[in-house]
Design brief:
CATH superfamily of the largest domain: Zn peptidases
CATH architecture of the largest domain: 3-Layer(aba) Sandwich
Bound molecules: zinc ion
Order of helices and strands: HHEEEEHEHEHEHEEHEHEEHEHEHH
Shape: elongated
Number of helices: 12
Radius of gyration: 23 Å
Length: 420
């Protein structure tokens, strides 16, 4: 099969800049993908959508008593605003966020080590006035790392907004050591909307044009990150698969969707299934590629379909001699909105070994990635695709096992959020 790592790597080099949702970087990323689509002789189709945005105008944290100290912080997006002069309140460290821990938290500004939906809900119920979460590693060098920019998601704020900030772990430890009594938290932010888009193209099936296999990969990255591993690599692999199918016309239609704004909450794929509700019945399978390229890593297939597909992939990697891991599970990426509509999915992911590559930081750079590793993953996806797309009879049942449906519902918080 003509799958070439060098070509994939060349695309990666072109996308070597920050592609944050709704920014010019994301637009530039879309332009590069469009250009490469055109080079195959096909036309890209754009699907535009709006993404909620926020801008932090002011965020500060100061210990007032017993000794004045101020800390560098970042405001949490969508956590609302403090009063103009900030919130002045007692400080409390919330260790477990259990009832016993929150019994006297009302009206206080709390430091909490992590902020899942459940923890946040407990903070809201306890009536805390503000929150602080630590970011990164105690030993981070501030010159070489970034203080996280975080935001609350719909799942957090369904029961209320509490203004919050993020602080470096070392500062959080020093804050605790100072045994603060009164502290002041200031947060001012504006909420707005920005533009993003999916880029779509397809190669019509020669025998079963109405049976569609959808390929997805997100091309946006997070703040500070060039997102080479996550997920310029997957985007570039999709382009190589497109080139393959242009040269080798498939029996079934292959549709490629480069999704925008995945990192902000799967906005591109959610928008696709919403805007194309009438076309979903034809989609037989979603193949999503997210994370690829690390030299030291492990190819992994995460199957969000009937269990038989796990066995098929296992037999196949043994047959062709391609060691990899396999999970029958959901995966936090663009395959979820498709699976939520009943479309079986498989995610191909090449996880970097611990320390081999960095994700969601300024260190997600091209250096630990090689053309050979990209080719390794891409060649498996291509061989799998060749069998599935050109199958005599499409083998994957249109069903998602009950326990995975439950996981999807929980992930999308469908039960609690009526708006999704
Ligand atoms: Zn990703």
């Amino acid at each position: 099969m003509d799958i070439r790592g060098k070509r994939i790597y060349e695309t990666l080099k072109k996308m070597n800049f920050i592609r944050l949702s709704t920014t010019d970087g994301e637009k530039k990323g879309a332009d590069i993908i469009s250009e490469e689509i055109k080079q195959t002789g096909l036309e890209p189709v754009y699907e535009y959508f709006k993404v909620p945005c926020y801008e932090i105008v002011k965020a500060s944290l100061e210990v007032l008593e017993p000794k004045r100290m101020s800390f560098n912080v970042k405001g949490y997006g969508y956590s609302g605003n403090s009063a103009k002069d900030g919130i002045i309140a007692d400080f409390k460290y919330v260790e477990t966020a259990d009832e016993i821990d929150l019994i006297d938290a009302k009206g206080k500004i709390v430091l909490v080590s992590s902020l899942g939906y459940e923890t946040y809900e407990r903070l809201v119920k306890a009536g805390v006035a503000g929150f602080i979460t630590p970011s990164g590693d105690y030993f981070d060098d501030p010159k070489k790392t970034d203080l996280d920019e975080r935001m609350l998601r719909k799942g957090h704020i369904q029961n209320g907004q509490i203004p919050g900030v993020c602080i470096r772990m070392k500062d959080a430890v020093n804050l605790m050591k100072s045994e603060p009594k009164k502290i002041q938290l200031v947060l001012e932010q504006k909420e707005d909307e920005g533009d993003s888009k999916n880029i779509i193209t397809e190669v019509k099936g020669t025998k079963y044009p109405d049976e569609v296999i959808v390929y997805t990969a997100h091309y946006d990255s997070v703040v500070f990150s060039k997102g080479m591993y996550d997920n310029a690599a997957g985007s570039a692999i999709l382009l190589e698969l497109l080139r393959y199918f242009v040269k080798n016309p498939p029996l079934r239609t292959v549709r490629f969707i480069w999704c925008g704004s995945e990192e902000r909450g799967l906005f591109g794929s959610k928008n696709y299934v919403k805007e194309n509700a009438d076309k979903l019945d034809n989609i037989k399978l979603c193949i999503n590629v997210d994370l690829a390229g690390p030299v030291i890593g492990r190819d992994t297939a995460i199957v969000l379909a009937e269990e038989k597909l796990c066995h098929m992939i296992e037999y196949m990697y043994k047959e062709i001699g391609h060691p990899m891991s396999l999970r029958h599970d959901i995966y936090s990426s663009d395959s979820i909105p498709f699976a939520d509509k009943g479309i079986p999915a498989v995610n191909f992911v090449r996880y970097g070994a611990p320390g081999a590559v960095s994700c969601h930081t300024r260190n997600d750079v091209i250096d630990p990635i090689s053309a050979k590793s990209l080719e390794y993953t891409a060649s498996f996806v291509a061989q799998f695709s060749d069998r599935i797309v050109n199958a005599y009879m499409f083998p994957v049942a249109r069903e998602i096992p009950e326990e995975l449906v439950k996981k999807i519902d929980k992930y999308l918080l469908k039960k609690q959020l009526k708006t999704d």
